[in-house]
Design a protein that fits this description.
Length: about 110
Amino acid sequence: MNLNLSGHHLEVTPAIREHVVSKLGKIKKHFDNVLDVSVILSVDKLQQKAEATVHISGKTIFVECQDTNLYVAIDELIEKLDRQVLKHKEKNTARRHDDSGKVVEAE
């Protein structure tokens, strides 16, 4: 998994980097096929914003969150990202084909 972490109007400290990396481990635990993750952290006056773009084989997922606290925004971002990755994983599992060529429906 390639991680690209950048900050706009914000210096990315080692503590922030460690927080993001530890939280992204949750995504990696659920789904191994994550190819590339790009996280952008930015500050606009009192609003802290976190954006993530995740490239999975066959799909690109984009999530953004805003809060007054950067760490809370990162936590919300990871929760949203986790839900979307699990949804993508469930859709792929439901879309598997059997030998007859027909699509197997999820129960």
